[in-house]
Amino acid sequence: MKMEVVFWIAVLGIAYSYLIYPALCFFFAKLFGSEQPIPVLADEQLPKVSVVIAAYNEEHCIAERIENLIAQDYPDDKLHIYIGSDGSSDATNQILEAIHHPFVNISLFQPNRGKASTLNDLLQQVSTDIVVFSDANTEFEPDAIRQLVSGFKDKNVGAVCGELDLYNSGSNANKDNLYWRYEQFIKFQESKLDALLGANGAIYAIRTELYVPISANTIVDDFQIVMNIAKQGCRVIYHRGARAREEIAPSTLEEAKRRVRIGAGNYQAFSNLLWLLNPNQGWRCFTYFSHKVLRWFTPHLMLIALISNILIAQQTFYAGFLLLQIIIYALGIWGNRKIDEGENTPWFITFIAFFLRLNTALMQGFVLFSRRNLTGTWQRTSRS
Fold it and tell me: Which residue ranges run through the membrane (predicted)?
């Protein structure tokens, strides 16, 4: 009887986070949430703003990234750009040294210390009220910064998260597009409840005075930076009008490596942000536990469900569940093999394969975190 309870807790925990919670979040956002329109500010209303980018070995895109920022629909004298090269060993530094622009500030740091340290140093140079964070391989829409900054018209807003579109080089499509749209949908509902969790690291902005320096070994910097702002009692909003696009990893191997490291960073963030589990946080406690904590521990729940199912499989009813689990895992393994070979698979196989790959990376990230030797130094993802 006890093992049956364990089995059902694990199964329901997974089902709740991925299926029930999004429906509840949508329902609660309809009943209790609010969505205020964000009017775009005129030139004379726009404040001075800084964009900070920490880069490492980005010779293939850093020049285009700076051109993209300079071309923003934002008054030239109100836009300052800070690029920090963190011990780059390719041609990134040479490219940056050749850039001469009155509002582009270049810092060449040595040795390589990691993104968190670079961001901390760049923020010390920023004197504007608003700072925008982005990545070297991101491309902003022409009005992205104007849209982000407009979100701060409400004095209670401390951070604004933009919307990121992912694409595959050459095909202009994101192979994980369904899951990405699913995540964007949840974020939008959470924003209505004033319970948004973190930001898209490629496009978000904060009030500079609210920035809290992060530890040098921080991996998911965007999540911790924004949650530090929420802790100060400020609103964090999701603004769909502020858009950017970014290429995903060109291979499943590169993407897996990225997910493992992010997985380790998630558990690191969990250990640093236990205050989010305080019921006094209201809706944010609800969204954090449902959307983040249960997701991060889904691979553990999957393992518990499998082991407990094996132990009670002598009952015909649970033998059927065990057979179902075996079939699902077999389909996932087969699907991932076909995807790695560049073959198309039916949508449901693709979904199972993605779910299995995602949670395998999370478990590997947990093992990496458990070793207690995480560093903030770069683990760069190759791009085409």
Answer: 6-29, 293-311, 317-335, 347-369
Torsion of CA 336, 341, 344, 345, to 10 degrees: -30
Distances (CA, A) of 127 to 55, 153, 369, 382: 21, 19, 35, 33
Q: What is the pLDDT along the chain (384 residues), one digit of tens a residue?
A: 699 999 999 999 999 999 999 999 999 999 999 888 888 899 999 999 999 999 999 999 999 999 999 999 999 999 999 999 999 999 999 999 999 999 999 999 999 899 999 999 999 999 999 999 999 999 999 999 999 999 999 999 999 999 999 887 655 444 556 788 899 999 999 999 999 998 989 999 999 999 999 999 999 999 999 999 999 999 999 999 999 999 876 666 677 888 899 999 999 999 999 999 999 999 999 999 999 999 999 999 999 999 999 999 999 999 999 999 999 999 999 999 998 888 888 988 989 999 999 999 999 999 999 987 777 675 555 544
Strand partners, 79: 49
Polymer length of the chain: 384
| Burial of 32 from C-beta contacts in 10 A (0-12 / 13-18 / 19+) | exposed
Structural domains in the chain, CATH included, are 1-32+249-384 (no CATH), 43-242 (3.90.550.10)
Separation of alpha carbons 216 and 114, rounded Å = 7
In the block, tokens 């924003």 appear at 191
Of 279, 271, 263, 207, the closest CA to residue 237 belongs to: 207
pTM: 0.90
Structure tokens at 198: 């973190």
Maximum C-alpha span of the chain = 74
Residue from 244, 237, 202, 240 nearest 221 by CA: 202
